[in-house]
Amino acid sequence: MDVPPPEQLVRCVEQIDRDRLARTLCELIELPSVNPFGKVPDDEEEGEKQVSAYLRDRLRKLGWTCDVDEYAPGRYNALARLPGTSAGRSLMFAGHMDTVETTGYPQALTGLVRDGKVYGRGACDMKAALACYLEVAEVLAAQSIRLSGDLLIAGVGDEEYRQEGAKALGASGLRADAVIIGEPTELTLCLATKGLAAYELRVEGLATHGSVPQHGSNAILSAARLLGMFDDHQRALDSRRHPLLGPATVNVGVIEGGTKPNIVPSECRIQFSRRLLPGESPAGARAELVASLEPGTWSIGDAWWTVEAYELPAGHWLAETLRVAAQLSHVPDCAPHGFPASSDAAYFGSPVALFGPGSLAQAHSLDEWVSIDDMATATAVYLRTAFLTSG
């Protein structure tokens, strides 16, 4: 597949407008789309309504068909299509429109361009990729180009929680021959992504006066001893490595317990997550951890939050197509990698690879940014992948 791109594609890549990319991203940042995490959005800052309308209006002006679907109260998907001219393979560029919260982040909803970067909530996770998709549409429209296969852009909701947007799109029966998700992969080709399972560990004790702790059972201290065993469990996980994703991991994120410093606590509650590798299940991961802990007055409930892991089938043409497009775009690292976070990949019902501008190191931070250079490179890769896919 190492063939030089056609003249038409060369002209398209030359048309990529860095200033327009930055402006588009700033406009997207300034449309708040905070994930309400299971609630119905109760103000204009929550949910994907404004971003989905923006995608619809921009793409319709460029000659695409685009529909917005309210798949749950106050939650939206946008799906646009540029019909192909014949029977070439179809390609979908997909990305989530929702962001994490803005609490503690001054000017989170003000897109700011400084020193070759765009700052703001969602800048890299992942409104940058949405801006790149729109730039692809702008370039194709300026050149009056339609590929032989359908080109689709999907903006989905709820990726930051339960992937309900991608699930709804997958359940609709819509399929593309391949999907690229522009998560912040640092411009690396990610052909697998970890899943997630979140659990609650509840430790019971016996309350008594803090001056005579020997007459009670301290739930917090018991929980601390159990958490010490998590290190041994992680070492066991480290010995089983996926070729792209490395080992599964465990993270303790929340601990609550006790009422006052002079009372022996009768209960301690811990929330933790387990990153899943392809082939692992939340039930199996829970059973493995339970077996590694000493018996006691504790319990771990079933996973209350899950995201499936995903791996592109070995030898799929999408991997090579994306690699060639990245190589032609002078991406430094064109080897296959794994994405350590969870994503929507498992729910589209189509073969998926992840490739996008930005880094997880900036995602969810209080100083989120993305490089405009990376956005321009990602746009070039998306354009080349679309041409190569369509044939």
UniProtKB/TrEMBL annotation:
UniProt-listed InterPro entries: ArgE/DapE_CS, Bact_exopeptidase_dim_dom, Peptidase_M20, Peptidase_M20_dimer, Peptidase_M20A
Secretion signal, residue range per the UniProt entry: none
Protein name stated in the entry: M20 family metallopeptidase
Limits of the Peptidase M20 dimerisation domain: 192-294
Naturally occurring in which organism (per UniProt): Streptosporangium fragile
Residue spans crossing the bilayer: none
A family per Pfam: Peptidase_M20
Metal-binding as UniProt keyword: yes
Entry keyword set: Hydrolase, Metal-binding, Zinc
Superkingdom of the source species: Bacteria
Cofactors (names): Zn(2+)
The UniProt record lists the keyword Zinc-finger: no
